[in-house]
Amino acid sequence: MFILDAQTHPIGMMDVDGYRPAEPEVFPTPTLAPLPSPYGGPAMGPRDWYVDELIAAMDGHGISKSVVMCGGIQVTNDNLAAAVAQYPDRLIGFAGYEHYQPSSRDAATTARAVAALERGLTDLGFTGIGELTLERFGPACPEELYVELRPIMDVARRHRAPVYVHTGYDRVTFRIKRDGAEGSSWSYLPAPLKYRDPIYLDDVALEYPDVPILVGHIGGPYLRQFEAALMLAHRHRNVYLTTANAPAENIARAVAEVGADRMIWGSDWAWRSIKEPAPLVASAFLIPLRASRHYTVGAWTGPDRAQQEVEQCNAISLATGRTRRGSNGPAPLASPSPWS
Q: Are the C-beta atoms of residues 101 and 186 closer than 8 Å to each other?
């Protein structure tokens, strides 16, 4: 049985204790190890490296392959390529724009960001882009995010690559950023909730109907943003919803309304906050009775059927852009599929 985990973050940074100093219990002492050579590019010193732990977790829970990507920390494409090179049959890379924040007010930095994405999708063999955290595009207002995202979406269109976007509530009030090349100083970046509302991806989906957009966490646990994610999926056949950290009742409702073929399973397995996939698998495969009392789940008649639906979603919908309901989905991605 093929199971894909569409969201993992096994790499951090050595001075990460400055990231969430108010939550030291969540972040134990890091495992520091040099970036593997020769795949890591220029020497960058020790980092939090949890790639082996990720593979062990995958083995323990029957996960066939995982997507590794940047997240709250802007790890480099070389970091991610080093992880994929260690386990090329198990890991798939998504490209990031590294420490070059695209901005309509800074053409030079945007060009460097585009070059980083292009290199990830060509030279390094990555198959998607993400995870994008949209508060990094401030001070542009959320209504203008579609303008700020154009350079990234243009790259995705050229390479027929999906784009993964973080949405929904989380506890992080500040992220950290590094402006420019590796070795530059880190600084704090406010993370307002308004940038995590999926509704602002509507303009993006309208402008790029041929680019698969993965809405992270189905908009989060709260109804306001969750229903915005559902509206996006109803309006746009190129929008897919990912289950990481989503409540089981939200997963059930999303399956009932938009179909399991539009759902992508992911664990959000993360460095320094390692999560056991078992309850996350259960939330996707074993929809609680309380959810079924409220929503008609349709074809989801039991664990086996649910697992089959999630597998179909991961292996078919994301890989090819096709759905079981016909050919109205986004254009197929590059072939042969890297997901199978």
A: no
CATH number of the domain enclosing 114: 3.20.20.140
Tokens of 54: 């990720």
pTM above 0.90, yes or no: no
CB 38 within 8 A of CB 312: no
* Distance of alpha carbon 231 from alpha carbon 258, whole angstroms: 10
What is the Cα gyration radius of the chain?
19
* Burial zone of 301 (CB within 10 Å; 0-12 exposed, 13-18 middle, 19+ buried): exposed
The number of distinct structural domains making up the chain is 1
The 10s digit of each residue's pLDDT in 103-127 is: 999 999 999 999 999 999 999 999 9
pLDDT tens per residue, range 298-336? 333 333 444 444 444 444 334 333 333 333 333 333 322
**Distance linking the first and last C-alpha atoms of the chain:** 11
CB-CB neighbours of 164 under 10 Å: 25
Range of the domain at 108: 94-266+275-320
**How is residue 206 annotated by DSSP?**
H
Is residue 265 within 8 A of residue 218, CB to CB? The reply is: no
Looking at the domain assignment, is residue 24 inside a domain? Answer: no
With respect to residue 223, please indicate whether it lies within any of the assigned structural domains. Answer: yes
* Secondary structure element (H or E) that encloses residue 80, with its range: helix 77-86
Rounded CA-CA distance 101/268 in Å is: 23
